[in-house]
Design a protein that fits this description.
The complex is a heterodimer. Chain A is built from 11 helices and 1 strand; from the N terminus they run βααααααααααα. By secondary structure, chain A is an all-alpha fold. Chain A has 2 domains: 96 residues, Alpha-helical ferredoxin (Fumarate Reductase Iron-sulfur Protein, Chain B, domain 2), CATH 1.10.1060; 55 residues, no CATH class. The model of chain A has no long low-confidence stretch (mean pLDDT 91). By secondary structure, chain B is of the alpha/beta class. In chain B, the strands form 14 sheets. A 5-stranded parallel β-sheet of chain B has the order 10-7-6-18-31. Chain B has a 5-stranded parallel β-sheet with strand order 20-27-21-22-23. A 4-stranded parallel β-sheet of chain B has the order 2-1-3-4, with helices on both faces. The radius of gyration of chain B is 34 Å and the shape is elongated. Chain B starts with 6 loop residues before the first strand and ends with a helix. Classes of the chains: A mainly alpha, B alpha/beta. At the A-B interface, strand 1 and helix 4 of A face helix 12, strand 23 and strand 26 of B.
């Protein structure tokens, strides 16, 4: 079965990646595999291959990039960034792809719940008495009062809130 | 032997290098009765010693000189120069290597080293008695050159040779020089305008008074020999007098016939009275008689009366000293690759057609359109290895330039906003600035797809291209406006014809075989014939011009050097015995022998002196200057006669590669059995069975043949022959009741010198373990040999 097709959409999608800061050198990837062999995530998860992500991005294969968890598995350790012989920086490509995915509302459920929490509590988790007791045991002051209003305003105005299914 | 020449022998002690091991006094005592004069020197190569040698030659009226010292590769030239000054012919100087071959390798066996030194000197004395004067010859070499092919290689070589002052005949089959390069709008990796850099060179060709340019001409026949080739040139019927034509183009304007333009890869059209392209050299028109309707309009309108529609062409004869093959390449016929639909689908074209489309002066007038349909091109797929690296339908080799020129075209297309995909198996960009060019192509946003295109099929006005994307392990379909195929670069048909005419061997891939792929890459296997550019294999313009410059130098060198012919040639020594069977001609690895009136004639320039023909002669009619059968026989006899050595091994060794390895073994002070007595030979193909039999009859317990690797050294082409002969000799030895294991054959590379110790010792031990050969058995062989001789 055909799995890769080129058309106007794939071309547009690739161009949109190239416009994002840090991802400009995507087309220089010559698929040497350095990024993949170095990647701590790839060592544990067979499906996660940074080289393949770069390749799919070069061919503008949005469908395949956005239809799985792949993009969200990167730990952001930047090992591939340091080692890439062509300065392609797959970590930056992945960031760019995440951004594009986010804009289209293709967001991983975990990320979604974290952002929902952020808009609700001003933190990515609720800080209650239990958490502050733990902090006290470590001689830490209670968590500062979060700027919930500011955060939710930003999230609303940037459309983030809507993307994660908030009001 | 009635005449006995006066011989002088010198022994060098080399400080203690020789003298500490070899008992030089004993050696002197043993030989003093055999020669007129013997002397020992502390350092023979020192100026006072050399002066003494010269002095003594004069005073004692010595005629032949034997020097026992270090390897001849060290000081032979110095000694030779000095004895020549005293009137000694070069043939009358023998150097015996008692350092590298005796004192240095037999340190632990001084007695053996002394016996061996003595034997080797005795051998040289017997041999030099049989030597005859040798004289180098001067030969007439025509100081003119034929260059075949007017592409960038032929142009470069011709210009360089003409600048040097040689007369050059440049032959080109088409109406203009320029070759393929003039068809390209730009060249990688600089994106230079190809026509801008080549046109001035073409103009220089036209202007050079040393260059006789013959376009629309072909080589018909080549006879003669290196240094003196006779060439017949077929000047094809052009219908236009090249001397009269001023290139005004009047004929073309009135010509009513149109035909496909070869220059535009048949995309565009030209008239039947035409000039291939505006900058053509010579700027002379041609009548294409295949398409001409003979209306006579051109002739009637020519202001110079230069047109002759009854032109039948003519044969011209040339005499040249050397020939340069620069016949370039052709492209493989892509209609053979049915799955790509070339010739069936209008939007599948070759890369060379694309070159013409990309030219601003090309047949589409710089528009990016599919030539046959006129449809705008917005997307292109490049199919690399469309037949190259294909052992099934195409050519097995890599065409070497496709990756780079496809990237070049892709860049030009990207600059004009076209989407480009390059389907590759491997991207090969080795070469200065080539990887950078690859990176630049990537930066311009060209899509590189790993996976060879398997199928192309029509898709409306576009085409659908199928391949695998191997990096993702997925199938791929791509619909585009145009597909450009990179066909294999193949050897031209003319090259095959010329290779037969010139007796220049070609390889399996039909490209011309180099004399040595590494060490002599622009010489062919035939002397006086050189090659440059794609005629030796697919290559880029950079390498082509480098080869063309090299070929020019080789020609200059050849025309200059070939005048001196060394006196080491095979010759017909016993004319009455020769029955003209032609076996010598057949075996000669240099094709130096021709049979004229039932007798072999030796080309003295081509003959390398390998000696391979001499044992081949069933009539024993041939011999070699400076290395006669009788010299070899007496040397063997001299070494073995009256020797007190317990075990004697004669080792025939190739005198360049293997001899050097043996010297290196000496230099490293390896230690091997002192039974080994070395006799150098040009090639082991010089050895006759009788030489081996003589060795056994005179007392040898074993014989070694140490040959250099095939194609290495000046006699390299003969080294294969000796291997087959050694097998025959082993069988023949059994007829004389000598165990075949007593004849050793192996090949020795220079870096093998460490192994020599083991080879020599192994053979020594092997021979030692055998029962000795009985005296009457040796006598029987000798009697038999002498009977053969009668």
């Amino acid at each position: 079965m055909t799995e890769i097709i080129f058309n106007e959409d794939t071309k547009r999608f690739r161009d949109s990646i190239l416009k994002i800061g840090g991802a400009e050198r995507l087309m220089l990837c010559y698929q040497c595999g350095t990024c993949t062999n170095d990647c701590p995530v790839a060592k544990r998860i067979e499906e996660f291959r940074p080289r393949n992500i770069a390749r799919l991005a070069m061919f503008g294969q949005k469908q395949q990039l956005f239809s799985s968890d792949l993009l969200w598995l990167c730990a952001g350790c930047y090992t591939c960034y340091e080692h890439c012989p062509q300065k392609v920086h797959v970590s930056e490509i992945i960031s760019a792809l995440r951004r594009l995915a986010f804009i289209e509302g293709k967001i991983h459920p975990t990320i979604k719940s974290l952002l929902t929490a952020l808009s609700r509590y001003g933190y990515i988790m609720e800080i209650g008495e239990f958490e502050n007791e733990l902090r006290e045991e470590e001689n830490l002051p209670p968590a500062p009062e979060p700027a919930i209003n500011e955060i939710s305003t930003i999230m609303e105005k940037t459309g983030t809130l809507k993307k994660v299914g908030g009001n | 032997m009635s005449y006995s020449p006066k011989i002088g022998v010198w022994l060098c002690e080399c400080g203690g290098n020789i003298g500490d091991v070899v008992d030089t006094q004993k050696v002197m005592d043993e030989i003093k009765n055999q020669v007129q004069f013997v002397k020992r020197e502390r350092y023979l190569c020192s100026k006072p010693s050399i002066d003494t040698i010269k002095e003594i030659i004069k005073n004692e009226k010595l005629e032949r000189i034997v020097l026992a010292c270090c390897t001849p590769k060290m000081h032979r030239e110095t000694f030779l120069k000095n004895v020549i000054e005293e009137g000694i012919n070069p043939a009358f100087l023998e150097i015996v290597n008692v350092r590298e071959q005796c004192s240095w390798v037999h340190k632990k066996d001084p007695e053996g080293a002394t016996l061996k030194s003595l034997d080797l000197i005795k051998g040289a004395i017997s041999r030099i008695k049989e030597s005859k004067e040798l004289h180098t010859k001067q030969m007439h070499v025509t100081q003119e050159v034929l260059v075949i092919g007017g592409g960038v290689a032929g142009i470069t070589t011709s210009l360089r040779l003409s600048e040097y002052g040689l007369k050059v005949h440049l032959i080109e089959k088409s109406p203009s020089i320029g070759g393929h390069m003039i068809q390209y709008p730009k060249v990688f990796p600089t994106l230079d305008c190809s026509q801008c850099i080549l046109t001035p060179k073409m103009a220089s060709i036209a202007q050079s008074s040393n260059i006789n340019l013959k376009t629309y001409s072909e080589v018909k026949e080549v006879t003669g020999s290196p240094g003196n080739f006779n060439v017949k040139i077929w000047v094809k019927p052009r219908g236009v007098d090249v001397e009269k034509c001023i290139g005004c183009g009047e004929c073309s304007r009135v010509c009513p016939v149109e035909a496909p333009s070869e220059y535009d890869e048949r995309i565009g059209k030209r008239k039947a009275a035409y000039i291939p392209f505006p900058q053509s050299v010579p700027s002379v028109y041609t009548i294409d008689f295949d398409n001409c309707v003979r209306c006579g309009l051109c002739a009637a309108n020519c202001p110079r009366e230069a047109i002759d529609l009854n032109d039948e062409g003519k044969i011209e004869e040339l005499n040249v000293g050397a020939i340069v093959l620069a016949t370039g390449f052709e492209l493989f016929d892509l209609t053979n690759l049915v799955n790509y639909g070339y010739g069936r689908y209008p939007n599948v074209i070759t890369s060379l057609e694309m070159e013409r489309i990309l030219d601003v002066n090309g047949p589409t007038g710089s528009q990016l359109i599919v030539p046959k349909t006129g449809r705008q091109v917005k997307s292109v797929v490049y199919v690399l290895c469309a037949g190259s690296r294909d052992t099934e339908v195409g050519q097995p080799y890599c065409s070497r330039v496709c990756c780079l020129y496809s990237m070049k075209q892709a860049q030009l297309l990207r600059d004009r906003g076209v989407d480009v995909w390059i389907n590759y198996i491997d991207i090969r960009s080795p070469g200065r600035r080539y990887e950078e060019f690859y990176r630049l192509t990537q930066e311009k946003g060209v899509n590189f797809v790993k996976g060879k295109v398997t199928e192309i099929e029509p898709n409306g006005e576009q085409v659908l291209v199928r391949s695998e994307e191997m990096m993702l392990n997925k199938m791929m379909e791509n619909v585009v406006d145009l597909v450009v195929l990179s066909p294999p670069i193949i050897s031209s048909e003319d090259t095959a014809k010329l290779s037969e005419m010139l007796k220049v061997p070609i390889d399996e891939d039909k490209f011309v075989l180099e004399k040595h792929p590494k060490l002599d890459p622009v010489a062919t296997k035939r002397d006086g014939v050189f090659a440059a550019g794609a005629v030796i294999g697919p290559k880029d313009i950079q390498s082509t011009t480098a080869e063309a410059e090299g070929a020019a130098m080789k020609v200059v060198n050849f025309l200059g050097m070939a005048r001196i012919i060394e006196a080491n040639k095979a010759y017909l020594a016993r004319n009455e015995l020769c029955d003209g069977c032609g076996k010598c001609k057949k075996i000669c690895p240099e094709s130096a022998i021709t049979i004229v009136e039932d007798k072999p004639v030796f080309n003295e320039i081509t003959c390398s002196g390998c000696g391979a023909c001499i044992p081949e002669c069933p009539q024993n009619a041939l011999d070699q200057e400076g290395l006669t059968d009788i010299q070899i026989q007496t040397q063997i006899k001299g070494i073995l006669n009256d020797t007190k050595a317990p075990l004697k091994i004669i080792a025939f060794v190739e005198k360049e590669v293997v001899y050097t390895a043996i010297d290196l073994a000496g230099l490293a002070r390896l230690s091997y059995a002192s039974s080994i007595r070395i006799i150098p030979m040009p090639s082991l193909a010089r050895i006759k069975l009788e030489h081996i039999l003589y060795a056994f009859s005179y007392g040898a317990d074993g014989v070694m043949m140490l040959e250099a690797p095939i194609h290495e050294g000046p006699y390299g082409n003969a080294h294969k022959i000796s291997e087959e002969r050694a097998e025959e000799y082993k069988w023949a030895l059994e007829d004389y009741e000598i165990d075949s294991s007593r004849l050793w054959y192996s090949r020795v590379y220079v870096p093998d010198w460490r192994k020599l110790e083991r080879i020599f010792n192994t053979f020594h031990e092997m021979v030692e373990s055998e029962d000795p050969i009985e005296g009457n058995q040796r006598g029987k062989i000798l009697k038999n040999l002498l009977k053969i001789k009668d």
